[in-house]
Write a structure and sequence with these properties.
382 residues; mainly alpha; Alpha-Beta Plaits; globular; disordered N terminus; binds iron/sulfur cluster
Length: 382
């Protein structure tokens, strides 16, 4: 939705009382604007990227741990349950978003927690809730694929000196691709009744959906390897290529994030139009022209906030109060990096604890059946 870059002027009331004021001349954006602007230089340190990178590393380490344990569990079962016994980590079901969507649909329709892959549902709900509260923070703070995407474009910047932005005529239709993929999955799941979802989950294919995903990569042929290589190269030259154009999970989180009360908000009274925020934005959003960033493409990475040289020029915040005093206007409204990190952790860990406390975290299957299912995983199709 197009946003009016000038509406913040009308909303914000009187100009702020600056901590340190320097009056400078600046070129007018148009002839009707003042040519004098007060700069409130940032005096407080900005930690958003440190918090976010720490969250990314912790979540990446968690996923490496889960992936390793899951792989060892699969190998243990493939050896007929001999060797070092390893249990299946339910957290691996975070990699089954379609199962999470199906189980959530089943839960909504029946009020019953599904017996197969319940962790997929709880993790799916946790990530949706995070998007509902903190825009697409899941994508830029937690998702391991988002983290790898960021590492790749950083590597590309070092290698080529820059990344590239696609022209609007190709960028806009390409961005629609992820919504089409999401629409396909939502339509497919929506066409199933609760009984149909339950029946699917109890098929051998449904039971070993996680093993099938592992096998997809273990047994990858040349076309899969070439596709992955192309994605790696594209991700090095176009920021967040996968997340921006192809990821249906990101598309869903983006749609949910439209309801988020928290947004990047620009104080037009303080903004000096330096454009640093727009240049820092990996989603290519015109942050320097918007009073608030509503776009579903905003991944709440706060790179724009970190790059802004002005104190409270940009904030990740709820809508300001209608007060003349700027301190009162933003009191209790801003979600700083520590608050955001703590709240994301509470939602994520809280959802896992609820699932564990209610006995809905593990999928309970007899080991002799698991052995048969995993050893013959190749044979199960849907
Ligand atoms: S607007 Fe800011 S928070 Fe949103 S994606 Fe761009 S840089 Fe990140
Ligand atoms: S970084 Fe963006 S919000 Fe901050 S002063 Fe520059 S243009 Fe304005």
């Amino acid at each position: 939705m197009p946003e009016n870059p000038h509406s913040a002027h009308r909303k914000c009331g009187a100009p702020d009382v600056p901590e340190s004021v320097i009056v400078v001349s600046r070129p007018p954006r148009n002839a009707s604007l003042d040519t004098k602007k007060k700069i409130n230089r940032r005096t407080t340190r900005e930690y958003s990227q440190r918090f976010r990178h720490a969250a990314q590393m912790i979540f990446m380490a968690l996923n490496v741990y889960l992936g390793t344990q899951f792989y060892l569990w699969v190998r243990y079962l493939e050896h007929g349950g001999h060797g070092i016994q390893v249990s299946r980590p339910p957290g691996i079901e975070g990699w089954l978003p379609i199962v999470g969507l199906m189980n959530t649909a089943y839960f909504v329709a029946t009020g019953r927690v599904p017996a197969i892959h319940p962790a997929a549902m709880f993790l799916f709900m946790a990530f949706v809730l995070i998007s509902l509260l903190f825009k697409r923070a899941f994508c830029s703070w937690l998702c391991p694929i988002g983290t790898v995407s960021e590492w790749l474009w950083r590597a590309g910047t070092r290698l080529f000196g820059r990344t590239f932005r696609l022209a609007p005529w190709i960028d806009i239709p390409l961005r629609g691709t992820k919504y089409l993929v999401l629409g396909f999955f939502v339509f497919s799941v929506g066409a199933l009744s609760a009984a149909g979802i339950r029946a699917f989950m109890h098929t051998p294919f449904g039971l070993v959906a996680d093993v099938k995903l592992l096998d997809f990569f273990r047994e990858a042929g040349l076309p899969v390897i070439e596709t992955l290589a192309a994605l790696v190269v594209l991700s090095m030259v176009v920021q967040n290529f996968w997340c921006r154009y192809l990821c249906p999970y990101g598309a869903l989180m983006g749609i949910v994030s439209l309801l988020s009360p928290l947004k990047v908000r620009r104080d037009a009274q303080r903004c000096i139009d330096c454009g640093k925020c727009a240049r820092a934005c990996p989603s290519g959003l015109a942050v320097d022209r918007l009073p608030q960033v509503r776009s579903p493409e905003c991944i709440a990475c706060m790179r724009c906030v970190a790059s802004c040289p002005v104190e409270r020029g940009l904030q990740f915040a709820a809508a300001p109060r209608n007060a003349v005093d700027p301190a009162l206007r933003w009191r209790g409204r801003v979600a700083g990096p520590a608050t955001t990190a703590a709240a994301i952790t509470i939602v994520f860990v809280g959802m896992v604890l609820v699932a564990q406390a209610t006995g809905h975290w593990q999928t309970h299957v007899l080991q002799r059946i698991e052995v048969e299912l995993v050893r013959h995983a190749d044979a199960w199709t849907h």
